Amino acid sequence: MRLDYSRMQQDQLDGDHGLRPEVIDRLTRRYSEVQAEVATRREGGEYGFYALADQTETVAQIETFAEGLGQAHEDVIVLGIGGSALGTKALLSALRGPGWNEWDDEAREYYPRLHVLDNIDPSIVHNLLQRVDPRRALVNVISKSGNTAETLAQYLVVRDWLEDALGEAAVRHLVFTTDPESGALREIATRESIATLDVPPSVGGRFSVLSPVGLLPLALVGIDIGALLSGAAQAISQAAGAELKHNPAALFAGLMWAADTTAGSRIQVLMPYSDRLREFGAWYCQLWAESLGKRLDRQSAVVHAGPTPLAAVGATDQHSLVQLLMEGPYDKVVSFMTVDDPGCDVPIPDSPDLPEAAAYLPGHTLGGLLDAEYQATARALAEAGRMNLTLNLPDLAPATVGELVMFFQLAVGYAGVWYGVDPFDQPGVELGKRLTFAAMGRPGYDTAPPAREPASMES
User: How many domains does the chain have?
Assistant: First the structure.
């Protein structure tokens, strides 16, 4: 993986915008302090996701489980939301391609289809249960706390669906991934002898894709989870660099912080030039937003910190967002992701009836055109004074994708130090949860106050 940040610097843009040389110097001088704080907080029990790179026993357990069950089922259904689902969707798409479930059994090498129900929209749940044979389905229910309202509701619906077809045998089609000791899912699993995997207590949900949360579903569809973790270990090794320029995760975090706080670029766009990384953008948005969007800093001062992450994909969004990126406010920075070897390419054929205006296309490939469009977009943004950088990946093999995931998790951990906020809590979502519990009549919660009459206009 290679990080090219030259187009973040003022002297590589239009001379008026971008990071000034003294800003880069200030990041470099502060790096030792940032690295020391991360080390201290790791020793104090924070940054638990570092340990996910070393899970030899867990990997062996999951691979044994997957070998016994994966090809015994036609479909795997994951029930989860947020960090219990977004990472799995991102890695499935990156490693198996966006159309995995559309391939026939032989093309999938008889690995199951993988469906991730990451919302409670009744139409989506209903339609999936209409399509899947419960007798040939394995259901993985994922909630770190074991008490997530959306996931428990999904579970009750799907459990009823399984029991209608299988009776008492329904429990053999369930596996829970949850807290090792507490929560409703743990209680149900203990009472009914349902298979379980543990979510490490020190790992928050949005950092958990390289834990059993993501490893089990990915192993079930034949992905080399050991290679994923070897890539993650590589990212951690690079993060030990004594100089900022040798620590790409800390450097990326520092550049994003500086773009936000010194150059007013509070909107941070992740734009991979690969459809296989389209879902990765949604995972990145949760990681960045929930970790860095904080009202208070670590000294309890009100700061209302945090950039706004935005997901895009090239070349699709050259025909939508790029107009805004080029000519709108100077409040955005674009992080491109490119892939040297996507695994395949498609030549553009010639045609005897081709109009002269399209004659330049034959002899090239779709991959070549995609790369040319990335190069042109990055250069055009720079010439317009718009900051951008590029994270270049050699391929989308499991080790590379594991390194990519850990890179961004490390980056957000460093960004927490640059911003001075706790990147591992999420107090802003708790009020909404409490009001939901109250509205649904959960014991121990007051009745939610009546909603204000919404402003509306009728035509």
Answer: 2
pLDDT tens readout for residues 358-367: 999 999 999 9
- Residues 304, 388, single domain; the answer is yes
Helix axes 212-220, 86-96, angle to 10 degrees: 40
Tell me 299's DSSP state. Answer: T
Closest by Cα among 59, 72, 79 to 125: 79
In sequence order, the β-bridge partners of residue 114 are 76
Query: Which member of 290, 294, 332, 403 is catalytic?
Result: 290
Confirm whether 415 is domain-assigned: yes
Question: What whole-number distance in Å separates Cα of residue 179 and Cα of residue 129?
Answer: 27
Spot the catalytic one: 319, 356, 453, 458: 319
Residue of 92, 90, 408 lying closest to 253 (CA atoms): 408
Read off the tokens for 193.
């002898």
Range of the domain at 142: 49-223
Taking the alpha carbons at both ends of the chain, their separation in whole angstroms is: 54
Please state, as a whole number, how many other Cβ atoms lie within 10 Å of the Cβ of residue 287.
24
Catalytic member of 126, 246, 364, 433: 433
Q: Which pair of tokens denotes residue 339? A: 């892939």
Catalytic site residue 290?
yes
27 and 98 share one domain? no
- Of 249-258, 379-388, 441-450, the range with the lowest mean pLDDT is 441-450
Beta carbons of 331 and 265 less than 8 angstroms apart: yes
Q: Which residues make beta-bridge pairs with 228?
A: none
Q: Are residues 174 and 280 in the same domain?
A: no
CB 268 within 8 A of CB 333: yes
For residue 138, what are the β-bridge partners? Answer: 76
> Do the domain assignments include residue 394?
yes
CATH number at residue 125: 3.40.50.10490
**Residue 447, pLDDT score:** 56
**Residue 193, φ and ψ in degrees, nearest 5:** 55, 45
Q: Write out pLDDT tens, residues 301-341.
A: 999 999 999 999 999 999 999 999 999 999 999 999 999 99
